[in-house]
Amino acid sequence: MRALGILLFVTGLAACHRPVPTSVVPQDPAVLLARAMAVPATEPVSNRFSIHIHTSDQDVTAWGALVVRSPDHFRIEVAGPIGPPVLIVACDGQDVNAWLATQQNFYAGEGADRTLRALTGGAAGLDVLTALLVGQLPAMLGTPSGAAAAPPFGWTWWWQAPDGSRLTAALDTRTSRLVDVAAQDAAGRVLLHAELTHGDPTSRYPTTLAAELPTLYASVQIDFGAWRPADPPDGAFHIAPPPGAHIKPLNGAPGPVGG
Predict the structure, then answer these.
(1) Which region holds residue 142: left if phi is over 0, alpha if psi is between -120 and 50, else beta?
(2) Radius of gyration of the chain (CA)
(3) Where are the extended beta strands (E) located within the chain?
């Protein structure tokens, strides 16, 4: 189950996507934030990636694919070097479900927003995570609770929820790209800290994502392949329990990697 939590945490940010600016990006932080939040929803996109997960007791390398359709649909598949996907996570805008083939476990998350908030310590629900999948700072975050310069070339904002959880995001003021995201629970524990790099200055997509999950004693490196437009059918975002599956709640409870 822990690997599933890691995947949901990280791929909530994995497809972050920012158009290359055609003019000088405003240095005024209020203008920069407004510009970042004003990016409209994009067309469906897909990507194939490699992912390396390191924990205190093992290293796992896998390959994956994802497709996102704004504002609230996504599907993620992860597989080993040979064979079909061993993990599938899908959200149809209402529910988020996962199939872990190695354990024959089907995780049912009825109420996607509630489930994703449980998996992120309350810091982000379906609206936020789906927006981040297409590289947006979602407008529904509203007015930030605070802001500060982030040397050498960024600016950072944070949003404090009523329960005390916090989401923090940083933009590169030279490009307006999202470069840093963190989620913190109400107790002040950092659940996720991720940094994005953009190796191709002409591309609107990131090339790598490096993330740390301190409470799970894990780190993740994702290397992205080519980004492409997609035309997924509605059925791509829904998975049902296969015959003989063990049905469990998807509630963010920790468990062994791959289990």
Answers:
(1) left
(2) 17
(3) 45-54, 59-69, 73-79, 87-92, 96-100, 105-109, 146-150, 154-160, 166-172, 178-184, 190-197, 208-213, 218-229, 246-249
Query: Is residue 92 classed as helix, strand or coil in its secondary structure?
Result: strand
Question: Other CB atoms closer than 10 Å to residue 213's CB: what's the count?
Answer: 22
Q: For residue range 207-219, list pLDDT tens digits in order.
A: 888 888 887 788 9
Give the tokens for residue 59: 């290293």
Rounded to 5°, the CA angle 145-149-151 comes to: 145
Question: What are the residue ranges of helices labelled H in the chain?
Answer: 2-14, 29-37, 112-119, 126-133
Other beta carbons less than 10 A from residue 29's beta carbon: 17
C-alpha distance across the termini of the chain, in Å: 5
pTM: 0.77
Predicted confidence (pLDDT) at residue 15 exceeds the cutoff of 60: no
Helix (H, G, I), strand (E, B) or coil at 143: coil
Pair of tokens at residue 180 = 């840093």
Question: Measuring CA to CA, which residue among 195, 192, 193 is closest to residue 210?
Answer: 195
Contact status, residue 126 vs residue 91, Cβ threshold 8 Å: yes
**208 token code pair:** 């790598």
d(C-alpha 194, C-alpha 153), whole Å: 17
Interior angle at CA 16, CA 122 and CA 214, nearest 5 = 45
